[in-house]
Design brief:
By secondary structure, this protein is α+β, with helices and mostly antiparallel strands. Helices cover 22% and strands 31% of the residues.
Length: 226
């Protein structure tokens, strides 16, 4: 598996090799040790959700207040989708910018979205199933929603007709309106959260890389004795 940063700070593409034989295929979705090396802190996963969507369904733009924030590891389990990471952090050098990744059920790729960033996707085929692994328990009162059709953001949805959205998403404020209402997380708060987690990754002062390697060795030793 490889972990590659995207253009938006705090967003990463996790890509694996798919091993295929007469039975089907196998690939890795998540490697805590590799992601820890890139992030500088150990990510946590407290909740896993799934959604299924018809073709032309648009979900997002969704984020969360910081603190506590809500990081996501997004994987297309079945189907085909355009996945978007949007910088909704006020004060960020890339505020209002986005990254787009094509994900599908056979692509052996996932997107990691750090706390403070917005996320959206559009399903390109029926029965598109998406897995979300979350760093915190989902709390509706902490959700931040921005209108996905905001022309100032300009997501390239590539749809032949208007997308199907939830009532909440369709009624969401634009990015500018959300900023004026004080609804968006700040870049400063997100960087402070990242710094705190980096400091706490290893209390001895060793690098996150060393801590990750030690953790991998301990897991290997434990497996050898089972």
């Amino acid at each position: 598996m490889t972990v590659r940063p995207l253009d938006i700070s705090g967003a990463f593409l996790l890509s694996s090799r798919s091993f295929t034989d007469e039975r089907g295929a196998f690939f890795e979705v998540y490697r805590e040790d590799l992601l820890t090396e890139v992030l500088g802190y150990a990510p946590k996963i407290l909740q896993t959700n799934y959604s299924t969507s018809h073709s032309n369904v648009l979900r997002g733009i969704h984020g969360a207040s910081v603190p506590p924030g809500l990081a996501k590891l997004v994987t297309c389990v079945r189907g085909l989708m355009l996945d978007f990471v949007i910088d909704i952090r006020t004060g960020s050098p890339t505020f209002g910018k986005w990254d787009m990744i094509v994900l599908n059920g056979h692509g052996a790729s996932s997107v990691y979205v750090e706390e403070g960033l917005g996320h959206a996707f559009v399903a390109l085929v029926d029965d598109t199933c998406v897995q979300y692994q979350l760093s915190e328990l989902y709390r509706p009162q902490e959700v931040v929603t921005v209108h996905p059709l905001d022309p100032e953001i300009g997501l390239p949805l590539r749809l032949p007709t208007a997308p199907l959205m939830s009532d909440r998403d369709a009624a969401a404020p634009t990015l500018r309106e959300a900023a004026e209402l004080g609804l968006l997380p700040s870049y400063e708060a997100c960087m402070a959260l990242r710094a705190t987690r980096t400091e706490l990754t290893d209390g001895s002062g060793a690098s996150a890389r060393d801590a990750s390697r030690r953790s991998a060795v301990m897991r290997a030793r434990a497996a050898a004795h089972t």
